[in-house]
Write a structure and sequence with these properties.
The chain is of the alpha+beta class. The chain has one domain (about 5-155): 2,3-Dihydroxybiphenyl 1,2-Dioxygenase, domain 1 (Roll), CATH 3.10.180.10. The chain has 4 helices and 12 strands, in the order βαβββαβαββββαβββ. It has helices at about 15-25, 75-85, 100-105, 170-180; strands at about 5-10, 30-35, 40-45, 55-60, 90-95, 110-120, 120-125, 140-145, 160-170, 190, 195-205, 205-210. The strands form 2 sheets. An 8-stranded mixed sheet has the order 2-3-4-1-5-8-7-6. The chain has a 4-stranded mixed sheet with strand order 10-9-11-12, covered by helices on one side. β3 and β4 form a beta hairpin. The radius of gyration is 16 Å and the shape is globular. The two termini are about 30 Å apart. The model has no long low-confidence stretch (mean pLDDT about 95).
Length: about 210
């Protein structure tokens, strides 16, 4: 399997809150992205190096209630309370060329595979039905795109690149075993500590950690 970081999501209470906070932290204005009709969310996006992208995501206040739980735990009361305080590192997504093999090999339930389409581009993504994040967001979602250029190639390059994904967990041996099975050990640093996910970014303001 070819597994690499596809994108990473920073959640916000509102996109306006997130854009303002990222302007202060990174020194850039993240451009408006698109709406996710099935999830009633919307985003702002920019390139993050190595055919990956930074996604700032929030519940779309103008969208109707979705028919299912929103992804990335955005319906969770605890998540919503934390995002009201400030934007947070929410989830990371791994691009794979064999999603079915990833699911078959996974020692834990990654959720159902949901099909999405925008224009002539389609993608398949693992999304738990109840919207929770496997391993509290420490484990990534997995995505498989239809053939074609990676979406990041059409996004703006504002000089922000992902340096590393950092993970803390009270049981690093357990998580490392899962990562090895899923062939993603090379994509994140795992250390012992309270459960936490963070993204280290190189930006116009230097090295910035979003957690």
């Amino acid at each position: 399997m070819r597994n690499k970081i596809d994108h990473f999501a920073v959640g916000a209470d509102t996109l306006a809150q997130g854009v303002s906070a990222m302007k202060d932290a990174l020194g850039v204005d993240i451009p408006q992205g698109s709406k996710h009709d099935a999830m009633s969310t919307h985003n702002c996006v920019m390139q993050a190096g190595n055919e990956s992208f930074f996604e700032l995501i929030a519940i779309d206040p103008d969208a109707p209630e979705p028919a299912r739980a929103r992804w990335f735990s955005l319906d969770d009361n605890t998540t919503q309370a934390r995002l009201k305080e400030r934007p947070r590192a929410l989830c990371w997504v791994v691009n794979t060329d064999d999603l079915d093999a990833v699911i078959a090999s996974s020692p834990i339930d990654l959720g159902e595979v949901v099909n999405f389409q925008r224009g002539d581009r389609t993608w398949r993504l693992t999304v738990p039905k109840d919207g929770h994040l496997p391993e509290n967001g420490l484990l990534p979602a997995f995505i498989e795109w239809s053939p074609g250029p990676h979406p990041s190639t059409g996004q703006q390059n504002l000089g922000v690149t992902l340096s590393k994904v950092q993970i803390q967990t009270p049981d690093p041996a357990h998580l490392k075993e899962i990562f090895e099975t899923l062939q993603i050990s090379h994509l994140a640093e795992i250390a012992e500590g309270p459960t936490a996910l963070s993204f280290v970014l190189d930006s116009p303001k230097g090295s910035v950690t979003i957690e």
